[in-house]
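Entry 14. Two folds queued back to back today. First construct below, sequence then structure tokens.
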Amino acid sequence: MKSRAESLISYSVLYSLIIIIAQKCDYILFIRGQKVPAIFLFGDSYGDTGNNDFIGTIVTGDFPPYGRDFEDHIPTGRLSNGKLMSDYFAEGLGIKELLPPYLDPKLKAQDLLTGVCFSSSGTGLDNLTAHILNVIPVWKQIEYFKEYRKKLAGLVGEEEAATMIKRAIFFISIGTNDFIVNYFALPTRRLQFTVQEYTDFLLNIYTVYFKELYNLGATRIAVINVPPLGCLPIERTLGSFLNKGGCDEKINQAADGFNSGLNAMIGGLKPAFPSLKIAYLDYHTLISEFIANPSKYDLDVIAKACCGTGTFEIVFLCNKFTPFTCPDASKYLFFDSVHLTQKAYQNISSVFLTRNVPQLL
């Protein structure tokens, strides 16, 4: 006959098992009940919700004025005054209000179940781009996704994990830094490649990563192209002597070439992967529209950023001591010299969710 202590231990173990089974059933029911149970973000700062806060890099926004219009006015590593596209995608799809960074040690099971962000500000397709700023290369982001997948399987089982990943949407935003941080800023790649050769080099890498995500179970992928890079405030400043403060058309042509190649790459992949749904999100056109018709989108300033003088301030150069920072970021397209304001991200995400994402459902 069991002692009272032994009985209590048995009941405790049984109760724990019941809780674990019930919790797992809840997780499975959640996955099966959602048209889009989760989203994932891969790529650069346009999606990074704070992964760079947990690595040794200067490319982060964990200090004011970044995050000043975020909830409780707390900087989170997002390179904006508030939310990013990542957050608006998650919110717009009815998944959750904010998309957490995968490297956050405070992640909970429910966070894993509904998707995370693997993006890293400052990174690119070219490993050299990530190395320049000591950020997370894309290959490492995919390794993190493999790690994540094992954690998910531990929560709901391998079969349900595969189902969730199959129905999730994978957003990719990458390529900007390969040109503005690497190719046009440093001589290494320019000595090796023409612009067209470098574009082909990047797209070959993109194809490899794209196929790898597909082989890991991704069947719904949204590809975000690069903006008109020569119209970023920092590029207007760097080329101001030649373009008199206007957009740098040489860099814009490189962006156009990359986007054309990216669109062609997607077209070439579709026949090879019939079960794969791909949406091409034309970030470039939307930014161009904002610049051409700012009043239509209730914007006043499109050539300069809100932070500081709006001409060169970015990451650590955009801080709480930076003078001249604007009082109302909602009237600006850019918050710092590369990254958009929360309002701009909200407008862009709304268009993508209405116009493009339904193609994946």
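Second construct, same run, same settings:
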Amino acid sequence: MTIAYDMLESLKEMFDEQNRAAKQTTMKALLTMKMVEGTSIREHALKMMSLLNDLKILGAVIDMESQVEMVQQTLPVSFQQFFLNYNMNKMDLSLVKLLNELQAAESIIK
């Protein structure tokens, strides 16, 4: 039992540094992402959701409200009215529901 535990701890030490680097790279990509006006909200939101999922797998804990806020911060000014309504109506959406709502808003904006 001791040998198995020692092996597990050794593996944790070896891969922990890679995990930290991967988490930092993914977080940087997430925090520096901005949607270009006129591009697809679907593609942008799916990329954001993918990065958030990668962070979760790497051990980061980001609550749903913060995830939605992160997505909001990457959107262009044309979605400002959507988030004004979102905040005024105190909507509570998952990322998938947010994506659906943003796609509906995108069709109105266009």
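Quick look at the second one. Residues 9 and 58 are 17 Å apart (CA to CA). The chain has a mean pLDDT of 88.
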